[in-house]
Amino acid sequence: QSSQSLWNRLSVLLNLLPSAADLQESGLALCNEVKDILSGAELPDLKANLLLPEDVALRNLPPLKNAHKRFNFEQDRPVFSAVEEVSLGKSWILTQAAFPLLEVLFFCHQAAEEARRNRLMRDMAQLRLQLEVSQLEGSLQQPKAQSAMSPYLVPDTQALCQHLAVVKQLATSGRFIIIIPRTVIDGLDFLKKENAGARDSIRYLEAEFKKGNRYIRCQKDVGKSFERHKLKRQDLDAWNLYKILDSCKQLTVSQGSGEDDTTGMVTIITGFQLEDPSTFSAPMQSAIQAAASASVEIKNVLEFYKQWKEMG
C-alpha cells in the first residue's frame, strides 16, 4: 500500500490485457491444461496449479508466499509454448491482482492524489526558482545606461581559454549572471592537457561552483536538439555553437513564457573575431544566423567588455 503508483500502473496493465474469453475465442493453439485454466481464470479462486518459469524463479519472494502455497514446486513442470506461457501468465495476474473493485478504486484514488502532490511540489520548486532568479536579477547593479545589455552572459570555450581575466571581471561586477553550459565545460576538459588557459578556467569554475557564487552558474545538459554527429566531426566549432545556442534557448524558455519577448536577454560572448562573418565556414555561418533568429546575440568577449566599460 506504500506504492500507490504501482497499483495505478497495474490497473492500467489489467485493462490492456485480453480477457480469458478473448483468449479462448482467439483460435490460438492451446493445450488442454491451459484451456482448463482459462475457463476459470476470472473466478475469485483459481484452482489450477501449473507452474510458470517466473514462479520457479520467484519461489522464495515473500510477497508471493500466499500465492505460491498452492504450488508443488517438486513436481515436473509441463513444457508450454511461448503463447501458452503468456496465456497462463495472464491468468495468474488476473487472479492474484484483481482484488475487489472498491479496493482497486481506493488505490487508484491514492495514486492520483500522489501524482497531484508530486505536481504541486514540482510547481512550488519552479516558483521558488523563478522567485530566486527575479530577486537575483533585481539585485543586479544595472545603471540605466547599461540596462540594454543582456543580464545573462554565456561564454564559449575560447572566451574562457583566451580571456579568463575578462570573464572574471564580468562575473564579479554584480551586473551580469554568467551561465556555463555543460558543452563548454566538456570543451575545456578536452583542451586541458595542452592548453594552460583551459586548466586555469577549470580551476576557477570549480572554485566558484563550490562556494556557490550566485553570479556564475553551471547549466546542465539540456537535451539533444543539436546532436548533429556528422557536424561534430566536420566542424566542431559550429557544433559547439549550436549546443551553446540550445542552452541559451532553454534559459530563455525557463525565465519567461512563450509569449514574452526574450530579445536581449542572453548574449553569447566568444573568443572568435566576428568582424567578417564571411570568413567562417558555412556551418558556422548557419549557426550564427540561427542565433540571430532566436534573438540571441553573439559578441566578441573583448568587444562586449569594451562596450560595457564605455557605458560606465
Automatic annotation (TrEMBL):
InterPro entries: Est1/Ebs1-like, PIN_dom, TPR-like_helical_dom_sf. This is Nonsense-mediated mRNA decay factor SMG5. The gene is Smg5_1. It is found in: Cytoplasm; Nucleus. Residues 151-274 form the PIN domain. The keyword Cytoplasm applies. It holds the Pfam family PIN_4. It comes from the Eukaryota. GO terms for molecular function: telomerase RNA binding; telomeric DNA binding. CDD domains: PIN_Smg5-like (cd09884). GO terms for biological process: nuclear-transcribed mRNA catabolic process, nonsense-mediated decay. Its main location: cytoplasm. Keywords: Coiled coil, Cytoplasm, Nonsense-mediated mRNA decay, Nucleus, Signal. Residues 1-23 form the signal peptide. The lineage of its organism: Eukaryota, Metazoa, Chordata, Craniata, Vertebrata. GO terms for cellular component: cytoplasm; telomerase holoenzyme complex. The keyword Nucleus applies. Residues 110-137 form a coiled coil.
